[in-house]
Amino acid sequence: MCRPTVCTKVNLYKLLLYPAGGHFATHRDTEKEPGMFGTLIVQLPAGHKGGALAVRHNGEEIVWETERDSNTQIHYCAFYADCEHELKPVTSGWRLVLVYNLVRKHAQIISQNTGHTAWRFGPSWAQLSL
After folding, report:
1. Model's pTM, two decimal places?
2. In angstroms, rounded to a whole number, what is the distance separating the alpha carbons of residues 102 and 114?
3. 1 in a domain, yes or no?
4. What pairs with residue 102 in β-bridges?
């Protein structure tokens, strides 16, 4: 048995500034670095209208209305890289966001039994069938 060494890193990927008319077509994020499993979006105060973010997975959709308090508040959302998402057009003002890659580093096997391998990812255990 070996000791688990796991950490999740939040790595800045880019800063995006969407003017009126700015949008992003439906897509899934690609793995931008080894171990990337998700995306974190931090919206900074800039003031805009429109620009809703729609995130879809397994036939369900969640829409984040990004304009609420956009001139005074910081908002964030995170989703797994395999989620389809799109940014609806910004209708006025500017939408300013920081985009981060969520990356799992140093996952290690900590025990093996017949037919199962236990992995440690953060505070909980996950059983994976072989």
Report:
1. 0.75
2. 32
3. no
4. 10, 38
